[in-house]
Structure formats: structure tokens, C-alpha cells
């Protein structure tokens, strides 16, 4: 097959490209230039949007012996990922930009261009496994290394995208990937993993949003209030600085009567109100979601002992019953309560290790105390 290997400049994508070439595929490496000004994104070892990363990817391609190109997708990345991130926070929601990048950039813009250029598949360094099911469809399963599993952020991929994807590392523990990289002579063998959000240079999401959103209405300033009494406990300079479940950085001037910490329970961006209360008020028994993306056949109901939902990239699985209404609305009954779930987050549905699909959370039902 003709394979396009997306090379971020990290160890995982380098080994994935090497494995694809060793398997006999005709491999071409590409690095995605996602920042219109690389110096404004990450620096050093913090992320995947730097000039150093592009150079690391090029050197890895040279060692592997494959052609290498840089594709400038900075305008589309800014429109589809960065602007979406800002809009979601401005609306009081909590998005996952990595998931959005996979949906709209790596497995949409890149894959579409790859197919148009005559490539058969795109290979990445993501940790997930692909198998052919009994119905002939391509199934995506969790990675063998549970600690590195990235199936959650890939839950937006549909059948057509999965059919043209390769995840060469899905069956391998991360430590073994580093050992392999060293054996292959790849200089990125010891390069630290990227963390946080690639386009937030210092990892300070709230500070970055404050700078970018500025005085954008209706998020400039408001009250932090007690959810039970309505008492004003403090002021803030933008709801974009908060997410449901947050404990730190609230700067409340009035302690709770029982001395226990308070958590963000609700965000009302129009009024600019942030509601806080005790941890137990964060418990959620059900949720509503829209914009579903299915990896295969669209289900009507998902239920059974193996059906779970994951609500954060590195969060726990929760047993659940999932109902799909009119093809575009999803209701999830959580058989095990979750905590601190925010609109804008992705709910990814599993049947055992198989990823069934995902949807974007629009509302939650709190457990009645």
C-alpha cells in the first residue's frame, strides 16, 4: 500500500512510520505545520507544534529512508480547532481540542488530501488497535497498553476513516516503543511526551483564553455564588477561566460553613455567573449529547454488562445504557455515577474494548441529594 505517515516529531509517530516501511508499504512522511507562527505555540519539549519538532520529524524520516514533506494546515487548524476551542469556552462549555483535531484535521483534511494524491492509508503513532469484525467492518479497540490508550480521542472516526487508517503501535507497550526507537537509531527515542494543549504555549489555559477573548461579551466579569443560597462569594474576570469540577483558583473570600472545599457546579456565560458548592453536588446520573459520530453501524440502543462510557481522555469507564434518538441525539443513563462532567466534553461509547462511537455532551442530570 501507499501509506502517508503523519510524523509529529515525537517517538511514537517515528516508530509507527518505521514499522509501516518495514512492513513493505510505500511510505511517505509528512509533518503538519499547524501554527501560523510556530514561536507562538509550544517551545522545547512541551508539545508538538514547534520548529524543533519539524526538524526532529525530518531527521527521523532520513533515518528510516523515506521521502518527507511539510504540509501547512495552519489556517484550517486555527479555524477548526483553535477558534472552536475559544468559542466553546466562551459559551461556558469544556471542549477537547485533541479530539477535534483528530476529527477535522488528521483524519479529515489530511486523509482527504492523501486519498486524492493516491495514498491508500494514513499511519499515525496513536495507541489503538484496528481489527476486522465478523460483519466485515473495521473495528477500533483499546490499545494493549492501557496507560497509553488513545481510543478516546479517536472515538470521532467513522468507518470510512478507519478503513484508511493504520495504528502500528496499538499492540505495543510504550517502554518497548522507546527501546525500538533507540535500536533503529532514531534520535527521538528519549524525547519526552507532549502534554497539555499544543497551542497554549505555557499550559495556562485560563491565561491564554483571557488574552485571546479579552472583553468578549458576555464573559467579561461576574459573580461566583453559592449554589444553595445564592450568596455572592467572590468575583471573576471571565467565565472562560472555569470548568465544572474545578476546585483550585476560585479565590473565594467567604469560607464554607463546614470548612470543606467548594467546586464549580455550573457556569452561566450569559449572566456571567459561576455557581459553586460541595463535591457531592458534582455527581451525575445521566447525560444528553448531540453530534454523534459512529465507528460503524448506527445503534439504536447500547446496553449490557460490557457497555461503558468514558467521559475524559484519561478518565474511568462507567457502565451505562445508551439510547440514540432520531439519529442525532443520545441519552446516556449512567449505571455508575460520574463526577464533574461538563457540557462540551466528549462521551465515547465502548462495548468491551471496541469503540462504538462518540457524542458531545450538551446537558447533565445531577444526582438528587
TrEMBL record:
<feature type="disulfide bond" description="Alternate">
    <location>
        <begin position="101"/>
        <end position="198"/>
    </location>
</feature>
<feature type="binding site">
    <location>
        <position position="125"/>
    </location>
    <ligand>
        <name>ATP</name>
    </ligand>
</feature>
<feature type="binding site">
    <location>
        <position position="32"/>
    </location>
    <ligand>
        <name>ATP</name>
    </ligand>
</feature>
<dbReference type="GO" id="GO:0103016">
    <property type="term" value="F:tRNA-uridine 2-sulfurtransferase activity"/>
</dbReference>
<comment type="similarity">
    <text>Belongs to the MnmA/TRMU family.</text>
</comment>
<feature type="active site" description="Nucleophile">
    <location>
        <position position="101"/>
    </location>
</feature>
<keyword id="KW-0808">Transferase</keyword>
<feature type="active site" description="Cysteine persulfide intermediate">
    <location>
        <position position="198"/>
    </location>
</feature>
<dbReference type="InterPro" id="IPR046885">
    <property type="entry name" value="MnmA-like_C"/>
</dbReference>
<dbReference type="Pfam" id="PF03054">
    <property type="entry name" value="tRNA_Me_trans"/>
</dbReference>
<feature type="site" description="Interaction with tRNA">
    <location>
        <position position="126"/>
    </location>
</feature>
<keyword id="KW-0067">ATP-binding</keyword>
<keyword id="KW-0819">tRNA processing</keyword>
<comment type="function">
    <text>Catalyzes the 2-thiolation of uridine at the wobble position (U34) of tRNA, leading to the formation of s(2)U34.</text>
</comment>
<feature type="domain" description="tRNA-specific 2-thiouridylase MnmA-like C-terminal">
    <location>
        <begin position="286"/>
        <end position="361"/>
    </location>
</feature>
<keyword id="KW-0694">RNA-binding</keyword>
<dbReference type="Pfam" id="PF20259">
    <property type="entry name" value="tRNA_Me_trans_M"/>
</dbReference>
<dbReference type="InterPro" id="IPR014729">
    <property type="entry name" value="Rossmann-like_a/b/a_fold"/>
</dbReference>
<feature type="site" description="Interaction with tRNA">
    <location>
        <position position="345"/>
    </location>
</feature>
<feature type="region of interest" description="Interaction with tRNA">
    <location>
        <begin position="148"/>
        <end position="150"/>
    </location>
</feature>
<dbReference type="InterPro" id="IPR004506">
    <property type="entry name" value="MnmA-like"/>
</dbReference>
<keyword id="KW-0820">tRNA-binding</keyword>
<dbReference type="InterPro" id="IPR046884">
    <property type="entry name" value="MnmA-like_central"/>
</dbReference>
<feature type="domain" description="tRNA-specific 2-thiouridylase MnmA-like central">
    <location>
        <begin position="213"/>
        <end position="277"/>
    </location>
</feature>
<protein>
    <recommendedName>
        <fullName>tRNA-specific 2-thiouridylase MnmA</fullName>
        <ecNumber>2.8.1.13</ecNumber>
    </recommendedName>
</protein>
<keyword id="KW-0963">Cytoplasm</keyword>
<feature type="binding site">
    <location>
        <begin position="6"/>
        <end position="13"/>
    </location>
    <ligand>
        <name>ATP</name>
    </ligand>
</feature>
<dbReference type="Pfam" id="PF20258">
    <property type="entry name" value="tRNA_Me_trans_C"/>
</dbReference>
<dbReference type="InterPro" id="IPR023382">
    <property type="entry name" value="MnmA-like_central_sf"/>
</dbReference>
<keyword id="KW-0547">Nucleotide-binding</keyword>
<keyword id="KW-1015">Disulfide bond</keyword>
Amino acid at each position: 500500500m501507499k501509506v502517508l505517515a503523519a510524523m509529529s516529531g515525537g517517538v511514537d509517530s517515528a516508530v509507527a512510520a518505521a514499522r509501516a516501511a518495514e512492513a513493505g508499504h510505500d511510505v511517505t512522511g509528512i509533518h503538519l505545520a499547524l501554527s501560523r507562527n510556530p514561536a507562538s505555540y509550544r517551545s522545547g519539549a512541551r508539545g508538538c507544534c514547534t520548529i524543533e519538532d519539524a526538524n526532529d520529524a525530518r531527521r527521523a524520516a532520513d533515518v528510516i529512508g523515506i521521502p518527507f514533506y511539510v504540509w501547512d494546515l495552519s489556517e484550517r487548524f486555527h479555524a477548526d480547532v483553535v477558534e472552536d476551542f475559544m468559542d466553546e469556552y466562551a459559551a461556558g462549555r469544556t471542549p477537547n481540542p485533541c479530539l477535534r483535531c483528530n476529527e477535522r484535521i488528521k483524519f479529515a483534511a489530511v486523509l482527504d488530501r492523501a486519498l486524492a494524491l493516491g495514498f491508500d492509508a494514513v499511519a499515525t503513532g496513536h495507541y489503538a488497535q484496528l481489527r476486522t469484525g465478523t460483519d466485515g467492518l473495521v473495528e477500533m479497540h483499546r490499545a494493549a497498553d492501557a496507560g497509553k490508550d488513545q481510543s478516546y480521542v479517536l472515538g470521532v472516526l467513522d468507518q470510512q476513516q478507519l478503513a484508511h487508517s493504520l495504528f502500528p503501535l496499538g499492540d505495543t507497550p510504550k517502554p518497548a516503543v522507546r527501546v525500538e526507537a533507540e535500536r533503529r537509531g532514531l534520535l527521538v527515542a528519549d524525547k519526552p511526551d507532549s502534554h497539555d494543549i499544543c497551542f497554549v504555549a505555557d499550559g495556562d489555559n485560563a491565561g491564554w483564553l483571557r488574552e485571546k477573548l479579552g472583553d468578549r461579551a458576555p464573559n467579561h466579569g461576574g459573580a461566583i455564588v453559592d449554589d444553595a443560597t445564592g450568596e455572592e462569594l467572590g468575583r471573576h474576570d471571565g467565565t472562560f477561566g472555569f470548568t465544572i469540577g474545578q476546585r483550585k483558583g476560585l479565590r473565594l473570600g467567604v469560607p464554607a460553613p463546614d470548612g470543606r472545599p467548594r467546586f464549580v457546579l455550573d457556569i452561566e456565560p450569559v449572566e456571567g455567573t459561576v455557581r459553586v458548592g460541595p463535591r457531592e453536588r458534582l455527581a451525575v446520573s445521566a447525560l444528553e449529547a448531540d453530534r454523534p459520530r459512529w465507528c460503524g453501524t448506527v445503534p439504536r440502543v447500547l446496553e449490557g454488562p460490557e457497555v461503558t462510557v468514558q467521559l475524559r481522555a484519561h478518565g474511568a469507564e462507567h457502565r451505562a445504557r445508551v439510547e440514540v434518538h432520531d439519529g442525532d441525539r443520545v441519552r446516556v443513563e449512567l449505571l455508575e455515577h460520574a463526577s464533574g462532567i461538563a457540557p462540551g466534553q466528549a462521551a465515547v461509547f465502548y462495548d468491551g474494548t471496541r469503540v462504538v462511537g462518540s457524542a458531545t455532551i450538551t446537558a447533565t442530570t445531577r444526582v438528587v441529594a
